[in-house]
């Protein structure tokens, strides 16, 4: 009888342990790790975390550069990322043979060119140095802004433009490719024209109001977007993630930053939510 009781106790313990492991595993599957970089992106992730529906939760994974967040999602170390626009993601997919998908645009950063030297476009001198991002997608974005301002003209093509596609350069602008994270340093070094994002230029207490000129973008091509792996696009977890990132609370936060000129929301609230606001 003692042997039987002991056997039953061991069996009960094994069942209890297995049940605990299964419960822990299920809870872990509902924790959606989202890799992000700097404010306001990290702020938005944390705000989405407060508004995601049960049983899901969001865990912010902060990274220090523009490579780690894609690698983390690609290698399933994070469920999603929130740090980039769709063209940048597409470039990563092509380079790494990856399967990332942009599922929801959230906001358009108000980007433009800053100058420690000039007060207006008319002041730009012949041969001025222009610091533009070294990655192809942001290089294209910078060139398109310069074309909007009439400082250059570009060859018409379906692909994103590069410096080699400059057709006319009446001011003989001299282009220097700089890593996106080092553009603020280029400004501090006195480069005459520097492309930058509000997130990075804020490190030296500048805002879009200090820019020499800004981008005039009507669509969401370069909107900062939630990204997941292709296999997760239609999952319940992804649906909950999208709902959290497009919640009224997130939209209100974006509207406040929009009033300060930092960004523009890239989505609209549902009509009933808009009415409630």
From TrEMBL:
UniProt KW keywords: Lipoprotein, Membrane, Palmitate, Signal
Domain of life: Bacteria
Record's signal peptide: 1-26
GO cellular component: membrane
SUPFAM superfamilies: Periplasmic binding protein-like II
InterPro entries: Lipoprotein_NlpA
Membrane topology summary: Lipid-anchor
Gene3D superfamilies listed in its UniProt record: Periplasmic binding protein-like II (3.40.190.10)
Localization (cell): Membrane
Family listed: Belongs to the NlpA lipoprotein family.
Name under which the protein is recorded: YaeC family lipoprotein
UniProt source species: Falseniella ignava CCUG 37419
């Amino acid at each position: 009888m003692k042997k039987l009781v002991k056997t039953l106790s061991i069996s009960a313990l094994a069942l209890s342990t297995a049940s605990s492991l299964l419960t822990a595993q299920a809870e872990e599957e509902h924790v959606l790790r989202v890799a992000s970089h700097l404010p306001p992106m990290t702020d938005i992730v944390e705000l989405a975390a407060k508004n995601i529906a049960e049983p899901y939760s969001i865990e912010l994974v902060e990274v220090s550069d523009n490579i780690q967040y894609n690698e983390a999602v690609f290698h399933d170390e994070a469920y999603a990322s929130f740090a980039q626009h769709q063209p940048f993601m597409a470039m990563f997919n092509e380079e790494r043979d990856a399967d990332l998908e942009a599922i929801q645009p959230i906001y358009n950063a108000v980007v433009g060119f800053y100058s420690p030297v000039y007060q207006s476009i008319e002041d730009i001198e012949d041969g001025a140095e222009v610091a533009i991002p070294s990655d192809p997608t942001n290089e294209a974005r910078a060139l398109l802004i310069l074309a909007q301002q009439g400082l250059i003209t570009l060859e018409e093509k379906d692909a994103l433009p590069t410096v080699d596609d400059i057709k006319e350069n009446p001011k003989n602008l001299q282009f220097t490719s700089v890593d996106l994270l080092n553009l603020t340093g280029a400004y501090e070094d006195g480069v005459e024209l520097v492309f930058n994002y509000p997130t990075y230029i804020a490190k030296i207490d500048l805002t879009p109001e200090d820019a020499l000129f800004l981008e005039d973008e009507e669509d969401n091509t370069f909107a900062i977007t939630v990204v997941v792996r292709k296999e997760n696009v239609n999952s319940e977890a992804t649906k909950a993630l999208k709902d959290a990132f497009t919640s009224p609370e997130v939209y209100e936060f974006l509207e406040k930053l929009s009033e300060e000129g930092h960004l523009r929301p890239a989505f609209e609230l549902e009509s009933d939510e808009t009415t409630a606001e």
